Amino acid sequence: MEGAGYRDNDVLLHWAPVEEAGDSTQIIFSKKDSSGGDSCTSEEEPTFDPGYEPDWAVISTVRPQPRHSEPTRGAEPSSPPGSWAFSVSLGELKSIRRSKPGLSWAYLVLVTQAGGSLPALHFHRGGTRALLRVLSRYLLLASSPQDSRLYLVFPHDSSALSNSFHHLQLFDQDSSNVVSRFLQDPYSTTFSSFSRVTNFFRGALQPQPEGASSDLPPPPDDEPEPGFEVISCVELGPRPTVERGPPVTEEEWTRHVGPEGRLQQVPELKNRIFSGGLSPGLRREAWKFLLGYLSWEGTAEEHKAHVRKKTDEYFRMKLQWKSVSPEQERRNSLLHGYRSLIERDVSRTDRNNKFYEGPENPGLGLLNDILLTYCMYHFDLGYVQGMSDLLSPILYVIQNEVDAFWCFCGFMELVQGNFEESQETMKRQLGCLLLLLRVLDPPLCDFLDSQDSGSLCFCFRWLLIWFKREFPFLDVLRLWEVLWTGLPGPNLHLLVACAILDMERDTLMLSGFGSNEILKHINELTMKLSVEDVLTRAEALHRQLTACPELPHNVQEILGLAPPAEPHSPSPTASPLPLSPTRALPSPPPPADTAPQPDSSLEILPEEEDDGADS
């Protein structure tokens, strides 16, 4: 190996995968001598056999045997082994990222001081812990307080390490404030602050337990235990062709209305709405049923009585905040804060829509009043930025203050968890999305992981407000009414996200995008997507998954095909459970076995560890 370009006494890491028929893959550590000659392999350092197969969609079995499969989509037809080899000076390393649990194999991504990522080092038969132990002889590996999977690299130089401590504080404020700021402005926070450092929001999504001890055990082991079967690649059948139908017309709806005004053949009607949506003239009436304001089983007289009751209830709640005097409001910081935030948001919500344009538009006043009344209806949740985005299309369609309020409440019943400060619901949804995507497209997941984008945080805005800012306004109406049917099962919005990523997979993978470019590309999809194409693909993905006889049980749970095997505790991270076989769902580890990370402390990877750590 040539030593040119490296400082004297630098330690070099050389990674050189070889052909399966040849000798096992070697990781060679070499130290450049002061004369600048070629580096030589140190006899003291061990070699490892990680079974590196860069083009391989892996299924870890009881006794895994390396094999080559056909090149995955987006990969080069035949990549020579030399294209995966590299050498790097340990002095040029900035950080090392470990893989997340649930992949059935482990990998490391080395990031250089220049900000670039080297090819991921995959370990299908163990070895990550051993490699980290060897690196710790030459470097200090400090676990980030915000991300236990990220090791920051420092030289064995106390002054340099002291000067670099500020790099450990990836946040300029605590995680809860970051989440609050994200909720107050989910758009600019996602695409400006998050682009500053890829790990910015991941730390907020993974708040660390308070009061954690600074005496930490070694990081949790991620690599699969030998002899335990984990299915990480499911053989899906061909993706079926889906054709969407025409929208439901007013005439068709009328045919479903019985003598007393009771709707008949409701399942068939919902199926039609799912497959084609609604004609614009029908939405004002049909949305009241889809959002639970009116009962599908009620008669016309029952609906009238219900509306009278709900009208009285609405104005009683509205009077509660209307009767608060300015003097009282000065002593009610919560109400004053809600009012200020709502006024600011309403003034910039869908102002390019004719229904809301102009300074004295009455639609803006209705938005303001409905959102303030919702604060009286749901004291615990109140108002969070993003809710105005959800109300605007409903008011546009319903065009009645009371009816729009109760329809909005019905929508919020579906998505109110998205706006909770704990963000547990959003973390759980991101985890389910990742799980679906890993079944549908493992190569895309591997690519995103290698580019430090495997947490799918760039999808946060999609899920938070149900793609409101990704499609043109009228397309959002069609998308939402299809999702409100609850067909073909729960969590169709996650398959909508998978469909968008599936449409963009070749652009992402073949363009060589890094994490910032991925984020930028996703942001630039706004208003460029076809809702019919996305819905068609999402339905096709659902049919493809449900046709698979070996679909993992936790994927079946997401799609509503199977009841949960046992109650799940709130997921502490955005990562899903490992894919599980249909016949058995592995139980999550007990909380006591999980080593919490401190809010602000430095963990130095111990040099001596148990030899069984790799398993």
Automatic annotation (TrEMBL):
Residues 564-579 have a biased composition (Pro residues). Residues 605-615 have a biased composition (Acidic residues). GO terms for molecular function: GTPase activator activity. Residues 277-487 form the Rab-GAP TBC domain. Residues 29-54, 207-226, 239-258, 561-615 are annotated as: Disordered. The keyword Zinc-finger does not apply. Pfam families: PH_RBD, RabGAP-TBC. It comes from the Eukaryota. GO terms for cellular component: autophagosome; recycling endosome. InterPro entries: Rab-GAP-TBC_dom (IPR000195), Rab-GAP_TBC_sf (IPR035969), SGSM1/2_RBD (IPR021935). SMART domains: TBC. Its main location: cytoplasm. It is found in: Cytoplasmic vesicle, Autophagosome; Recycling endosome. GO terms for biological process: autophagy; protein transport. The keyword DNA-binding does not apply. PROSITE patterns: TBC_RABGAP (PS50086). Keywords: Autophagy, Cytoplasm, Cytoplasmic vesicle, Endosome, GTPase activation, Phosphoprotein, Protein transport, Transport. PANTHER family: TBC1 DOMAIN FAMILY MEMBER 17, TBC1 DOMAIN FAMILY MEMBER GTPASE-ACTIVATING PROTEIN. Interacts with OPTN; this interaction mediates TBC1D17 transient association with Rab8. This is TBC1 domain family member 17. It comes from Callithrix jacchus. The gene is TBC1D17.
